Amino acid sequence: MKITPLCVVGLTWVMKDTLGDVLDELDEPVEFLLGGTDLLAPIEEALQGHEAGAAIDLHLEPEQAFGDYDENRVFLEPRNIFPAELEEGMTFDGQALPAGSKPETPADLIYTVTDIYPEHVVLDGNHPLAGIALRLSLKVQSVREATQDEVGSGTLGTGFFKLESQASEDSLLDAPAAPGPTLH
Fold this sequence. Notes:
Elements: E1 7-17, E2 22-33, H1 41-47, E3 55-60, E4 74-78, E5 91-93, E6 110-116, E7 120-124, E8 134-145, H2 148-153, H3 169-174
Antiparallel strand pairs: 1-2, 1-8, 3-8, 4-7, 5-6, 6-7
């Protein structure tokens, strides 16, 4: 079966930066819905018309992938509003910022704790791969038609190309979240 919009592809890949350093490697196939929100548009375009077994190499500039790094998405929040268990690398939804956070910190971003100081915490609302050009070597492992439920949801929920919060305000207060965002 050829890859068309609204089908499901199983992919493996190696993602590198332009210096050749491996940023992510997906050894086991993961399924993604084409025509939904699972993949970046340039990846979907490159996959069109291929079949299982195809190998595709892509070079994506930051604006085609996760955008340029925006220093205006970095915020300082008071350390005392966060629990003692806070660790660098934790991520959480801006809508769940602890009480006492600054009102100018946007609620529509997912933040990564990048630094913890005695008086403040540095929150970075950029995607961890923002500002990085990517080299992606894809291998199409499988292709199948999407079910009506999959098409209706617009995603298979794999979430690789989206940051998801690891901790809500309640879980930050109750228990430490897993450190570091994962790419898949």
